[in-house]
Design brief:
Number of strands: 17
Oligomer: single chain
CATH class of the largest domain: Alpha Beta
Helix content: 10-25%
Number of helices: 9
Strand content: 15-25%
Shape: globular
Radius of gyration: 19 Å
CATH superfamily of the largest domain: Clavaminate synthase-like
Order of helices and strands: EEHHEHEEEEEHHEHHHEEEEHEEEE
Distance between the termini: 22 Å
Largest sheet: 7 strands, mixed
Structural class: alpha+beta
CATH architecture of the largest domain: 4-Layer Sandwich
Length: about 300
C-alpha cells in the first residue's frame, strides 16, 4: 500500500504530508520536545511504522531533550564505537567532520552503503533517530528504500524459495573483512578485543514479519551480511544480489534532503538507507544519532 493511501491517525497531534507514494512523511510546526506530554508512545510509533520514516522540521533540541525523545521511543542501545559517544548523553552517537583541538568530535564518515541499522545484533535496532544539528547546504542526502514494498513485488516463486531461509550477519566481517565497506566508510583500524566480544555473529531470517503490522519485509542487513545459511558462497551471493536489486529499484527509493534542525525517525524493520557524501572542506556536519532496541526477528 502506498504512503499516500495510508490515512493519518487522529490520535497524533500533528499532520503528516507524504514524501512519496512509496514511503515517508514530513511534519511542520510541531515541537518534538512536547511529544511525550501530548501523545502516547504506541500511537507515535504506529505512525512511524505506517510511514516507514518521519521527518520533523525546525527542531531545536538540546542533547538532553534529544535523549529524552529517544527514550520515549523505547530502550536505547549503546553504539559499539564508544569513542564517538556524546559525553553528556552517552546513548547519543555523534557523526561529524568537525575537528576540535586536533580531535574529531564524531565519526567523520559513517553510514555509507545500503544497510539496516545494527542487524548484526541478536535484537537488532527497531528505530533510529537522527538530529541534524548542523547540515550542509548541499549534499549529504540520506537515501531510503522500502524492504516491505520490495518483498510485496517479488515473484511468487521467489517468495516461496526464500521462505524460511536465514542469513549470517557479522559486524566483525563488516569492519575487518568487507573491503567495499571499509573503503566507503574510511575504516582503517581494527576493532579492540572488547568491541569484538560485544558483537558475535548472528543469524536472522531473510524475510521477517513486522511485530506491529504483521506485514512481511526482506531483511538483508547490508554490508554486514555474510552469506545465506546452507548455500555455497557464489550461489548465496547471487541470490542476495537479486534481493538487493529488488529493494534498490529506483522507483522504490526516496532521497531525504536535510534541513538544519531536522529530526528523522525510521523503522529499520521495513527500510534500508544509505548516506551520501558532501564537500567536507566547505561544509560542517554534526548529526546526533540514537537507536532503539528491537525484538529478535521472526
Amino acid at each position: 500500500m502506498s504512503v499516500s493511501a495510508k490515512a493519518c491517525s487522529s490520535v497524533v497531534p500533528f499532520d503528516i504530508r507524504p514524501l512519496s507514494d512509496v514511503m515517508g512523511g514530513e511534519v511542520e510546526g510541531f515541537d518534538l520536545s512536547t511529544l511525550s506530554s501530548v501523545c502516547e508512545r504506541t500511537d507515535f510509533l504506529s505512525e512511524v511504522c505506517r510511514n516507514g520514516l518521519l521527518v520533523f522540521h525546525d527542531q531545536n533540541l538540546s542533547a538532553q531533550q534529544f535523549g529524552e525523545l529517544s527514550r520515549f521511543c523505547g530502550e536505547l542501545e549503546f553504539h559499539v564505537l564508544d569513542q564517538y559517544r556524546l559525553e553528556e548523553v552517552p546513548e547519543i552517537y555523534v557523526i561529524s567532520n568537525i575537528v576540535e583541538n586536533g580531535k574529531s568530535v564524531g565519526n567523520p564518515k559513517d553510514g555509507f552503503g545500503w544497510h539496516t541499522d545494527q542487524s548484526y545484533l541478536h535484537r537488532p535496532t527497531a528505530y533510529t533517530l537522527l538530529h541534524g544539528v548542523e547540515t550542509p547546504a548541499e549534499g549529504a542526502d540520506t537515501l531510503f528504500a522500502s524492504t516491505e514494498e520490495a518483498y510485496g513485488q517479488l515473484d511468487p516463486e521467489l517468495k516461496a524459495r526464500i521462505d524460511g531461509m536465514k542469513a549470517v550477519h557479522s559486524y566483525v566481517y563488516m569492519r575487518t573483512g568487507n573491503a567495499d565497506y571499509m573503503r566507503d566508510n574510511g575504516v582503517k583500524s581494527e576493532l579492540t578485543a572488547a568491541q569484538r566480544e560485544q558483537v558475535p555473529d548472528v543469524v536472522h531470517p531473510l524475510v521477517r514479519t513486522h511485530p506491529l503490522t504483521g506485514r512481511k519485509s526482506l531483511y538483508l542487513g547490508g554490508d554486514c551480511i555474510v552469506r545465506i545459511e546452507g548455500m555455497e558462497y557464489e550461489e548465496s551471493r547471487a541470490l542476495l544480489d537479486t534481493l538487493f536489486a529488488a529493494v534498490l529499484a529506483p522507483a522504490n527509493q526516496i532521497a531525504l534532503k536535510w534541513r538544519p534542525g531536522d529530526v528523522v525517525i525510521w523503522d529499520n524493520r521495513t527500510t534500508m538507507h544509505s548516506a551520501t557524501d558532501y564537500d567536507r572542506e566547505r561544509y560542517r556536519r554534526l548529526i546526533w544519532r540514537t537507536s532503539v532496541k528491537g525484538e529478535v526477528p521472526t
